[in-house]
Write a sequence for this structure.
């Protein structure tokens, strides 16, 4: 029988969570961190050059937060039509960083004792294909499940191409690959798959009897004070928003902010947030505030060499719905994402006191503008170093 979910895990300090969130909910303090003019100018020039690169984004915004104070760097525009610059309060699609939110829900349910990392699809979702039944929650969260990716299924793509705003049944997305076998023996390999986090959300619903959207509110948004973060089904974005563009020279940038609906990505990529609130989330999820020490130890057990999509700065390693980015200046935990019109990075120091969010308003990945991605990762690492070096 479904069990009612408590808004807070027993022993989890609401005050501690509020302290994490309040830092990013304060107005950005653009010159309150002591100031390093030479470094700031170099970072700004790098951001400007990234926007000026051929095929680059119309705009970019990076937010460095240290102990509750934020420094905001912007380049270019967040809306070509008005010339408005990107803003920390702009709504945007966080793309696959949504997988970290499904990880937060699942791992908090592990702390509640309602889920175990060793729970299987067969135990929690017996209606799913028998060939998938041995896959565990841990394998889903670390992309070692072998589940085929529904978003690459021909029938899914056919529907999406015919109507980009098609309203999918989000809870039926795995049906597009239900007749396919696993790609490999669970736990033996790493393969990034959007199907994994759909299954995670369905498992969370199965053990609680609550909709995933409500679990997000109870277990993530409310404890962290996230009032501008949501999981929509449609294609509309809350105002104001960072406009996302398809940039394919020689054609001019095309606004694709609301070209696609979110129901076809759901728990794998549908979250909408702001740079400010994204920073609050990643500091809590990647830091020690949100999960118990025991569960966090499992979360931060990394597979070296397995990268997020697109790859983050430095050397990547995969944990449970989180990645380790080992840069030349130190280690960050976080997640990346890309979606038509957007490329995202959210990362935090292991102690959860500092964060970097980095958003472009065009899409780049290893298969889409690899030169831009290479340049982006270099710039992100320099911003990471600025975050890590200031003590």
């Amino acid at each position: 029988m479904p069990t009612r979910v408590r808004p807070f895990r027993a022993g989890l300090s609401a005050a501690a969570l509020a302290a994490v969130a309040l830092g990013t909910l304060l107005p950005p303090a653009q010159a309150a961190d002591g100031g390093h003019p030479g470094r700031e100018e170099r970072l700004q020039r790098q951001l400007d050059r990234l926007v000026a690169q051929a095929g680059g984004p119309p705009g970019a915004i990076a937010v460095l937060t240290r102990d509750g104070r934020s420094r905001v760097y912007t380049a270019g525009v967040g809306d070509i039509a008005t010339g408005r610059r990107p803003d920390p309060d702009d709504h945007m699609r966080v793309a696959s960083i949504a997988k970290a939110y499904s990880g937060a829900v699942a791992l908090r349910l592990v702390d509640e004792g309602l889920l175990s990392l060793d729970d299987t699809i067969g135990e929690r979702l017996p209606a799913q294909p028998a060939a998938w039944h041995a896959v565990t929650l841990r394998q889903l969260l670390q992309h070692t499940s072998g589940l085929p990716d529904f978003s690459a299924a021909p029938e899914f793509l056919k529907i999406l191409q015919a109507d980009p705003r098609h309203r999918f049944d989000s809870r039926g997305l795995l049906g597009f690959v239900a007749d396919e076998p696993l790609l490999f023996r669970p736990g033996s390999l790493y393969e990034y798959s959007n199907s994994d986090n759909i299954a995670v959300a369905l498992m969370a619903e199965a053990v609680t009897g609550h909709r995933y959207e409500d679990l997000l509110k109870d277990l993530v948004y409310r404890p962290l004070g996230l009032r501008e973060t949501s999981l929509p089904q449609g294609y509309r974005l809350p105002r104001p928003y960072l406009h996302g563009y398809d940039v394919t020279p020689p054609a001019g940038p095309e606004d694709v902010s609301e070209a696609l609906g979110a129901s076809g990505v759901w728990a794998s990529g549908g979250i909408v947030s702001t740079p400010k609130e994204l920073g609050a989330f990643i500091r809590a999820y990647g830091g020690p505030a949100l999960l118990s020490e025991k569960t966090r130890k499992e979360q931060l057990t990394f597979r070296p060499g397995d990268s997020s999509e697109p790859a983050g700065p430095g050397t990547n390693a995969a944990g449970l719905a989180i990645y380790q980015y080992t840069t030349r200046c130190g280690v960050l935990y976080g997640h990346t994402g890309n979606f038509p019109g957007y490329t995202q990075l959210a990362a935090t120091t292991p102690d959860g006191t500092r964060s970097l969010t980095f958003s472009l308003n065009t899409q780049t990945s290893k298969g889409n503008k690899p030169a831009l991605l290479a340049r982006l990762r270099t710039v992100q690492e320099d911003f990471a170093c600025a975050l890590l070096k200031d003590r």
User: Anything to note?
Assistant: The first strand starts at residue 59 and ends at 66.
